[in-house]
Structures are given as structure tokens and as C-alpha cells.
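Progress against Task 2.4 (sequence-to-structure conversion) is shown through the following example record, which the project officer requested during the mid-term review.
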Amino acid sequence: MRKVVTSCVVFLLLATVFFIYTVFNNMVSLKYETDEPGACISKITGIDLCEAIKFHKIAALASLLLAIALLYYREFFMEKK
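C-alpha cells generated for the chain above:
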């Protein structure tokens, strides 16, 4: 069971890095695919980039907090062999 929790922690940390990357990627798209500074809709794809940035920020934070919670659970509530 300890290996499963460790695998989940590694996966969640990788997911956190991925979500942070997508935030920066969407921020670059926001800069180059919109005309006005306050605009959020991409002229190329039609996607609301501000909403995508917000979602990926929340997902990165959630996956990081979940990874920390699993580390805490693994360290204090699971038996050590």
C-alpha cells in the first residue's frame, strides 16, 4: 500500500508541473492571440484563455495540496517496514 501512495504522490507532483506549464503556455497565448490587453478570447482558437488559466491554476494548487496530504498520510498513518 505504501508503494501505491508513493506512486500517487509522484503522479500528482508531475501533474502539478504540467498544470503550471499550461498556465504559462496559456499566458503566452493570451499575449499573442488577442488584440486588446483586457481581451480573453483567442482570435485563433476562440477559447476563453482567462478561464483556462484560472482552471489550470486551481488544478495545479489542488494537485499539489493533495500530494502534500498523501505524503502526510503516508508518513504518519501508514506502518513503516
